[in-house]
Each structure stands twice: as structure tokens, then as C-alpha cells.
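**User:**
Everyone, produce one record:

**Assistant:**
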Amino acid sequence: MNPLLSSMNQQLIQWDTLHTKLHQFHEHTERLNMRTYSLAIKEYIQEASKRTFDISEHIQSVTGNSFLLEQWNSDHRDFRKMNRNDSHSSIIEEVTADLTEMGREIKEVIKRANAISDQKTVKLFISIRQSVEKLLWMINVYMK
């Protein structure tokens, strides 16, 4: 698999995993009656779902094949599943760390796409990087 496609696949997996993790975070805030946080997290979940779809659709348009997350085994999922007993602050730190890492990796996708003049991929991942920056900002403002 070429390096750009591999990087996009990794982003797809990470957004899907983040989506799952945000659902777990949402359940955590629901248990603690943190309504304000719960509403904000629903927005993050929608963003993660949208980005998972966008990347999957882009991979399909580039390769002509749909990419199935099931093709990757659990070794490719770098993010730890949250523990039901994790504290609110540890969950926020973990989601923030995940998003920060994703931001770094997105820059690599953009670099690889620029190297082969794939402007469609560059445009998509610049938009995704902006979403990551927005999510990080929202978490820092509303959650910490």
C-alpha cells in the first residue's frame, strides 16, 4: 500500500476509534449528571462521525474500493479504550492527547499528498486539521 493511502487509512481508524471513545466519554458525563459537558460531547461525536465518513468516502474515490475498518486488526488501534472508572480529568487529558497526535499525523498526510500534487486530499485534510484544532480549543475552553 502506498504511504499516502496508508496514512489516510490510519486516520480513518483513529477517527473511528475517537468516535467510540467520545461515546464512552459521553456515557461518563451522563452518569455524573454533567449536562453541559454532555451536550458539548454530542457535538464532538457528530464531528468524529462526519470525519470518519469523509475520509472513508475519499479513500473510496481514490482507490475505487470501499475501505472496511474490519480489514485492520486491533494492533492498528493506537488509542486505549477508556476505563469506566477513569476520572473526568484523565479522560479529557487522553482525548486531548489523541487529538494532538492526530493533528501531527494529519500534517504528514498533507505533506505526502502535496508531494504527489494530490490537491483533493490536501484540501480534505486541511479541513480535518481545522476540525482537530477546533475540537482541541473547545475541550480546553469547556472541559478543563
Remarks:
- The domain at 3-62+87-142 is CATH 1.20.1260.10 (Ferritin).
- The chain has one domain: 3-62+87-142.
